[in-house]
Amino acid sequence: MAQDAGASHLLAYSDSQLIVKQVNGEYEAKEKSMVQYLQQIEELKTKIKSFWLHQIPREENIKADSLSKLASALKDCKTRRITVQHLLQPRIPTGYLANIIK
Q1: Which of 8, 21, 33, 93 has the greatest number of CB atoms lying within 10 Å of its CB?
Q2: Comparing C-alpha atoms, which of 54, 55, 61, 20 is closest to residue 37?
Q3: Domain boundaries, the chain
Q4: pLDDT band at 99 (very low <50, low <70, confident <90, very high)
Q5: For residues 17 and 57, what is the distance between their CA atoms, to the nearest angstrom?
Q6: Topology of 9-65 in CATH?
Q7: pTM for the predicted model, two decimal places
Q8: Is a pLDDT exceeding 80 seen at residue 96?
Q9: In angstroms, what is the C-alpha Rg of the chain?
Q10: Residue 38 neighbours by CB under 8 Å, 6+ apart
């Protein structure tokens, strides 16, 4: 994806310590699928000027994690455009919300 976008430098973040350490060569990957991903990353590194992967706390990755899960859920769709809209105020006025328990 980065290469398709014409990136020459790639800075990526992950909340997975295992993944970051495997990509950075600190841990050895044992699963066949992870070994294949690492091979693709190594190939990408030869085609761009710089590649950097940094671990971030899971709490800081909530938005990205939510978007990735949504994108995965839509993998069979022809288009995977996801629009994120930030609301400055609720769509439903909070004055109208009430729970009445008797």
Answers
A1: 21
A2: 20
A3: 9-65
A4: low
A5: 9
A6: Nucleotidyltransferase; domain 5 (3.30.420)
A7: 0.58
A8: no
A9: 20
A10: 22, 23, 29
Instruction: Report the amino acid identity of residue 26.
Output: E
Write down the H helix ranges in the chain: 17-23, 32-47, 62-73
- DSSP 8-state code for residue 76: T
81 pLDDT above the threshold of 70: no
Determine how many CB atoms are found less than 10 A away from the CB of residue 22.
21
**pLDDT single digits (tens) 22-43:** 999 999 999 888 899 999 899 9
Question: Mean pLDDT across the stretch 87-100?
Answer: 61
Q: 């310590």: which residue's tokens?
A: 17
- Structural tokens at position 94: 């909070």
